[in-house]
Design brief:
about 150 residues, alpha+beta, single chain, Thiol Ester Dehydrase, Chain A, 6-stranded antiparallel beta sheet
Length: about 150
């Protein structure tokens, strides 16, 4: 396991919402991140069907998106969500984990653009898809004045 992935997993454990939702960073690369959220009855949005609440899924997608920005080669020192549009395609299957895969596909001087998809075990049929923008605070260049 790479040092970067180990550090990112440790950082995720400091996020109270990620801990509460049981999020686990599965994969991280240059400008991409995959995070898994296990099924948890505490997150049910419809007791009659056992379907997870959309808010839990959006939190998962937002977290994966921010992680993709942080892992981009542009070396973000910090990021925050500016806009995240999510289209819910179908309910997540009760009892199954949901996985969000995010890609930071374009970066300007101050804004990063992402695409994110959430799936359950049936990866051929997305649960939700989204696009968004995030702030991009870059690390200072070596020797730069603050």
């Amino acid at each position: 396991m790479s040092d970067r992935l180990t550090e990112a997993r440790a950082f995720m454990q400091t996020l109270p919402h990620a801990q509460s939702l049981g999020m686990e960073l599965i994969e991280m690369g240059e400008g991409m991140a995959t995070i898994r959220m296990p099924y948890d009855p505490r997150l049910i949005g419809d007791p009659a069907t056992g379907v997870l609440h959309g808010g839990a899924i959006s939190a998962l997608m937002d977290t994966a998106s921010g992680a993709s920005v942080m892992s981009h080669p542009a070396a973000a020192a910090a990021t925050a969500t500016l806009d995240l549009r999510i289209d819910y395609m179908r309910p997540a299957t009760p009892g199954e984990a949901v996985t969000a895969r995010a890609v930071c596909h374009h970066v300007t001087r101050t804004v990063a653009f992402i695409r994110v998809t959430a799936t359950d075990a049936d990866e051929s049929r997305p649960v939700a898809m989204g696009t968004g923008t995030f702030t991009l605070e870059r690390l200072p260049a070596a020797g730069a004045q603050p």
